[in-house]
Design brief:
Oligomer: single chain
Radius of gyration: 26 Å
Structural class: mainly beta
Order of helices and strands: HEEHEEEEEEEEEEE
Number of strands: 13
Strand content: 35-45%
Shape: globular
Helix content: 10-25%
Number of helices: 2
Length: about 200
Amino acid sequence: MERYRGRRAMPRNNPKRGGFWHDYGYLLITAAVVFILFRGIFQLAFVPSGSMETTIPTHSLLIAWRLPYLVSDPALERGDVVTFWDEEMGKILVKRVVGLEGERISFAGGYTHINDQKINENYLPQQGNTQSDAVFRVPEDSLFMMGDNRTDSWDSRFLAQPYIPLHAVQGKVLVCIPMKQVTLFKGLHLYLPLFGSTHTL
């Protein structure tokens, strides 16, 4: 009887097949893409305080659009929520753009006035509680920032250097993901995202 002379089957588990790149290359590519996205295109920022409530709750994770602010100083509009580096406090802050270059900022009766005209800040949880006795004139290439929680926000009203240079802006906030604080052990906390409360700005 003639024996079958077909092709020999290769063993299913070949320890020499593929190598490091075949086995782990996709992980390296994924890590590189994530690094580029959140280093050059997007920015992740954690907000530990309530200075932007109720727009941004305490303990929220923010995703900001970063790319335009790395390559230029794009025009910002009043009402934009941005991240910026504050030299005075030595950290990244998240505030709302209220005053633009050349504008006169004053306050009366708990309301913000731009060039002596009261503005409607419908993004605030409560209007009529913005307090300051100072008058500000925003210089060229600068912004005047305030938090939405006007009674508990350390912002341009109180900074020794109240005007934020345009080049200090790092990104425009796009998405807010509130986080829930869970206590694991005494002094050890874990933050879990509340995706159901995620919203855009």
